[in-house]
Task: structure prediction
Amino acid sequence: MKKTFQYTITALVFIFVLFACNKEITEDLLVFFKVEFNETTFDAFVNTEEETTFTIVGIDNIAAGDYQIKYDVTEGSGSYFLNETEISENEFVDLPAGPEFTIEYVGTLVGVNKVAVTLRDAQEREEEFVLTYNVNDTDFTFDVAASSETTYVSGEIDLDLSIAEISSATYEIAYTFISPSDITTEGAGTISVDDNDLEPDTSRAISVGDSRWQFTGVALGTVDVEFTVTSSLGVSKSQLLNIVVGETPDFTFTATLVDSTNPIFTTNSGAAINFNITETAGTSSYVMNYSSSNTGNLVYNGETFEPGDNISIQVGESIGTYVGTLEGEHILDFQVDNSNTVTVSREASLTLTYRDPDGTPPTIELVGAAEITINIGEAFVDPGATASDDIDGDLTANITVAGSVDVNVPGTYTLVYSVQDSSGNTSTVDRIVNVIDNIDPVITLLGDNPLTALQGETFNDPGATATDNVDGDISSQIQVTGMVNTNVTGAYELTYTVSDTAGNQVSATRTVNVISDNPPVITLVGSNPLEVSFGATFLDPGATATDDLDGDLTDQIQVSGEVDVTILGSYTLVYSVTDSSGNNVEVTRTVNVIDNTSPVITLEGANPFIVNVGNTFTDPGANANDNVDGNITANITVSGSVDVNTPGDYVLTYSVTDSSNNTATITRTVRVIDNVAPVITLVGASTITVQQGGSFTDPGATASDNVDGNITASIQTTGNVNVNLPGSYTIRYNVQDAAGNSATEVTRTVIVESNINFNRATGVLTAPAGSTVELSMNSGGDGSGRAEIRATSSGGANLGIAITCWSVAPGGIVCIDVDGDGENDTSGFTFTMPADGVVNFTGSHEPNSGSTGSGTSFSIRVAGETFNGSMTSTNGIPQ
Result:
């Protein structure tokens, strides 16, 4: 058996910076690392991992690689594993992130194994520890496994036990039921061997090798069973099994037709039935029986079963065949029972219809109309038919069609649809297809349409032609109706009509216009008179001309006259045209060239024009030009005024009119501004000194502006003075006038002089009342011993105490104690300065026996100031 004890090995590295000659300790803190192993002597087994842990204390946030480890087996033989990976002997390897680490030693030689373990930090400082392993050669392995993790009430599962040994021994085994700690429902069960129950908590011999026990479920829930095997040499191995006792086996059962599309069968024929058993809880065996409302039998697995017979049926899917021997409805009721102690039954039903051999012919029905009419040449797609039989079902695919349709020859065609069932019964149905000609002939007029005839002349009809898709050229059959009277002007219509042999008739109409020989007519496009701006490009909109005989004569119009857009005035254009009969006509248009463009005014100088308040303003003026009159600057008039003594925006308006009475205006903004900054003057000195903890009142400043006058009330003051904290403080004064001009910033310096002091010689600290004081100290040196610092008020009240002690000498003590309560920590305390602002410190350092050059460093922090010092056996507080 392992011995359990705590053995602490402490490695300390101290760094001191000593003053020359007298070796006084500086203010640097102690630097060290300390290692603690949970054990250094172990009982182990050969070729078996033996685990140990160690901790590096005193250092926070240990990262991977900060420390290294190596080992040397000085006696015996074996190796170490770090994070399940074997590490080489006498080679440093990195430790992972800490502070706790685990290593496993595997001894390969029976007897005492001694291992030197070395730890090294980043500064290559090393500490060595010797671990001793008493390696024995007697051990064994034990395993128990259940054939299933679940069973059910009265259900049984196998438990396979196995013992493998390293050296010879005898073994006993016992089991016990453990209440599950995290399961709400605790089940129950029994354990047996060859139907003999084994009592729990009773030891019995067990042979090396494999054994098989049985577990039987008794009550629902979780059962935890712990098995313990003990060798004759006192070595024990335990194994825990978790078994869930569930509900008694259950299942679902269905019976369906394999071909559900046709539930009608011929007598003495078989109907295939699909049986399906699905186990939903546990496993079992099953028996089925059935009843039928009519006469028949069931064939299953090659055997024939009558209603009421018990049929052994398999789990999952299986096929049976029912044969009905009488016509009519057969209602089949199936029941399946499992072999549980408490039987579970499931039922299913089917309804089948049986008929005697067929004497009824099938039924055939046309899809679409029984008589179809299509146009000649049009594609014909047979819509077909459907067929069904009371026995065979859908026979549509067996339909045959006799007859054909010639879509290019008008006529009546017959299609005959036939179908026969499996019993030889035949049915037929006819469809009539009419191919007809309903396409009209095409008439083509010869000559113009419309056609023009002169009044008094003879009219000759140019005629027309006609063709038909079937009859061909039928021009000779065209009939013409209507007449043309050339003695009277007007529009006349002639109608040409023709019919084909199928009776399709078509007509075409020609218009004949009888006209007289009159002069043409000119129509102006656009306005008359027409206005155009002076200097603009003139585009004549033109005119149109028509004649009752010649038609459109627009392109033959002649225009005379011209327009000069550079001279104001009225101009005439004459439009004339002559038709083919020599008839001439004229129309005139008046074009007026006018000035409707306003002059353009251009300002001289800036806009807006800026003037400083109080300065003289001289208007830089403007100039004006007109498209007709030229330079008319002399005609400009100006309205508006500027007050240079009052800041603001003033508007001057410039106006001018040309000889055509076109007027233009433009404005200028004259901005009178204030751009002179105000002036700040400090009240009192620019530098003021006050004592820490005293009071300070800002004497302020004054401000004046050239426009706004006294604006002292608008001064913005920033900055503050903490009279409790020594230092130099700056107060800033700024101001803006109403025009937004900012004064040059003025500052005042306030110096707070410190009244905080620590007299090392007397141990007296003076500081403002209510200030927070923090004291910390640290001992250093080999076996440095005990140190103490106390703080008391001037009235003798205890304000705090700190105690430290440290030693690695044999039999010495190790501690870092803040307040003497035995808890290891960094030494120190905190308190608030009393009302009189005075505290007395006393302190001493007592070295450990045999210590040389040891001491204690301390630090006092108050109100942002720090006082550092150190103590030795001959230099305490006060000095």
